[in-house]
Write a structure and sequence with these properties.
Layout: E1 3-7, E2 35-39, H1 43-55, E3 59-64, H2 67-76, E4 80-84, H3 90-104, E5 109-112, H4 128-156, E6 159-163, H5 167-170, H6 176-196, E7 202-208, H7 214-221, H8 226-235, H9 245-258, E8 266-269
Parallel strand pairs: 1-2, 1-3, 2-5, 3-4, 5-6, 6-7, 7-8
Helix pairs in contact: 3-4, 4-6, 7-8
């Protein structure tokens, strides 16, 4: 049966304009033999991912720095195996891959859903040290896991799914370093798709926007007017609602198992938030408004 190997260690934070789902990237599906490595899925997303995977007959191997939480999930859901680990540590990722292959004999899909979104920062408030740490968490962890997994994925003609963000494509105010890391995830996806196509390995990414998650709820609750915050986030989508974790999970399943002629794809899971015009100037922007002729 299929095997999913997940590492889950989100540092808790949310986007303000596009509250990226820390739960996305639920990848079950895959080939009938799929051993799927899914990295960096947050707690709520873990449960949905694992349920999707187990329901489809998969085994789930996952790692997390939160050992108590990981053990609890392992006990709650049959078909899951927990391995403690930190995705910023190459040795832990090597253990994740080697343990998965040792237990199940193959590896067919890797999903990188790494990430942390720092609080709002003006460019002058950022630091090189903070940027380096964010690169380790949002980009280099994914790169390292992919590099370690590639020999096995080439054997199985497997696939990789990276979880990026809508803001990597359209930008986000007061999020310079975060946007840079997510843009790099998308760019890495496309470059890797070219390199790995000769081995039959597909590489795609999902870029979510506003997904209604516990972290989104936490953010809204911390504002002065939670209802107004939620309404603003909801109205950002032409569809008039936020996405649900299961919808992102379904997209990951599609990319892993059905999208066999897709590689280098960036799939927006945004409800159309990037479409059309909107009010973009901030209250501090010097605005020049045209005047109607008399």
């Amino acid at each position: 049966g299929r095997v999913i190997c997940c590492s889950c260690e989100w540092r808790q934070s949310c986007e303000r304009d596009n509250h990226e789902s820390r739960q996305r990237g639920r990848c079950s599906g895959g080939h009938k033999r799929a051993a799927e490595a899914v990295t960096q899925v947050c707690r709520a997303g873990n449960i949905v991912l694992f349920l999707l995977a187990v329901d489809s007959g998969a085994q789930v191997v996952f790692c997390d720095k939160d050992e108590a939480g990981g053990r609890a999930v392992e006990q709650e859901l049959l078909g899951t195996v927990f391995i403690p680990g930190d995705v910023t540590q190459e040795g832990d990722l090597q253990t994740l891959i080697s343990e998965t292959v040792s237990r199940f004999g193959h590896l067919d899909c890797v999903v990188n859903n790494a990430g942390y979104h720092p609080p709002a920062q003006l460019p002058e408030e950022t630091s090189a040290q903070g940027f380096r740490q964010l690169l380790e968490e949002n980009l280099l962890g994914a790169y390292t896991l992919i590099k370690l997994a590639l020999p096995h994925l080439r054997k199985s003609k497997g696939n990789i799914i990276n979880i990026s963000s809508l803001v990597g494509a359209i930008g986000q105010s007061q999020a310079l370093t975060y946007v840079a890391t997510k843009g790099a995830v998308t760019a890495m996806t496309k470059a890797l798709a070219l390199d790995e196509s000769r081995y039959g390995v597909r590489v795609n990414c999902i870029s979510p926007g506003n997904i209604w998650t516990p972290l989104w709820q936490e953010l809204a609750a911390a504002t002065s007017d939670p209802r107004a915050t939620i309404l603003e986030g909801t109205l950002a989508q032409p569809l008039g609602r936020m996405g649900q974790p299961a919808e992102v999970g379904a997209a990951a399943v599609f990319l892993a198992s059905e999208a066999t002629f897709c590689t280098g794809l960036e799939l927006f899971m945004t409800g159309g938030a990037e479409l059309g015009y909107g009010r973009k100037a901030s209250s501090s922007t010097l605005v020049e408004v045209p005047i109607l002729p008399p």
